[in-house]
Amino acid sequence: MRRLFLIVLLLFPIAVFAQSDWVSYNDSGCIGGSTCTDRRLRVALDDRPVIGVRFYAHDSIGEKAEGVLRVKIDGNTIDGHVDIPRNGKTFTVDVDQLLGRYLVFEPVNNDEVEISRIQVLYGRGVSRPRDSRGGGGGGGGGRSTGWRPYPSAKGCIGGEECRRNGSRITIALEDQPVLGVRFFAQDNIGTRADGRLNVRIDGNTVQSYIDVKRDGRTHEFEVDSVRGTRLVIETANDDEVEVKDVEVLYGRGGGRRGGGGGNWSREATNEGGCIGGETCGGKRARIRIPIYGRSVAQIRFYARDDVGTRAGGELRIRIDEEVIQDYLDIKREGGNYSFDGRGVSGDYVIIEPAEDDEVVVRDVRVTFAPD
To answer: How many CB atoms sit inside 10 A of residue 145's CB?
Structure first.
């Protein structure tokens, strides 16, 4: 009995570590502007690769409402322009397996921002290269195959009622190929019943614009043996959705790498969203697709301008600071658009409003030139 107790005692920390849940930090504070004395907020990190950062922020301090944050790990910027609404919301930022000593928040504009509820999602291993990772991950560690539950990955996301929880659920995956994803979702929160979800592994789309029923049901999707660092379930529009009972089906052996985390896919994808205008975040709203220094052969997406009373939607498409297309006129009834990437390389493909009018962008696909 004593021996059994010692074995359980030794295994307990391993089991806790293997859960790889979001790690919460007590650091918080007001930064920027004339009211807040601090110019930045620093959070000491564990010596593990970071795959996600989550925090709550609001801009209800002072007279201005122009709060924008830059988020970094040491000197590496992971998001250079986080627009903070006055009434606040939860933000989740994907991170490409970065190691560092500090998570850093800095104001971009001279305006106050209050930051709290900081959480970090750590990945596997102790170094950035993906081939050297091993050990624990999502729901119980080890190399077993079959369906693996993630009981802590649940909650109401999106919309007015669940804004404080953010718009996505992120799960750290095992270093094994994913064969399937399933979860229960319902849209019985709030007055609307228009909940939609997108599911992806890193930048690789599993399923887009899933119609979530008001009384709920289990959604199950096959996955083509994709490996990745994170599974993301996120809202596709501004309506609340309750998600729970998330499970991942793992296989054995190899598997191909998902896009969005490095050079393993010929294409990066993004589900898009509504940007610009009074309804969708103004001219500072944008869609950013990480391309990790790769050369772009083609950019294509669907867009329409049927939101709001105006029909003056125009877009700018660029790779970092190099403009690929400026003042692209978007038809009210919508259409498909395609552009030559001209082999330009950089950190991000960016789609942003050229005029302050709402535009809905969907199914963004960035095709890379051959390596």
So the answer is: 14
Cut 0.90: pTM above it: no
Q: Which two tokens stand for residue 328?
A: 């692209």
**Class at the top of the CATH hierarchy for domain 19-134:** mainly beta
The CATH architecture one would assign to domain 267-368 is Sandwich (2.60)
Q: What are residue 10's phi and psi, to 5 degrees?
A: -75, -35
Whether 267-368 and 135-254 are alike in CATH topology: the answer is: yes
How many CB atoms are closer than 10 A to CB 9?
9
The predicted-structure confidence for 63-88, as pLDDT tens digits, reads as follows 777 889 999 998 888 888 888 988 88
Question: Which fold would CATH assign to domain 135-254?
Answer: Jelly Rolls (2.60.120)
Is the CB of residue 331 less than 8 Å from the CB of residue 313?
Answer: no
HSE (side-chain half, CA atoms, 13 Å) at 208: 12
The token pair that represents 280 in the structure block: 């969708």
Centre a 10 Å sphere on the Cβ of residue 80 and count the other Cβ atoms it contains.
15
Domain boundary assignment for the chain: 19-134, 135-254, 267-368
Q: What are phi and psi of 9, to 5 degrees?
A: -65, -40
Residue carrying structure tokens 């970090």: 120
DSSP string over 176-211: S-EEEEEEEEE--SSS----EEEEEETTEEEEEEEE
User: Where residue 8 falls among pLDDT bands split at 50, 70, 90?
Assistant: very low
Residue owning tokens 């599974």: 231
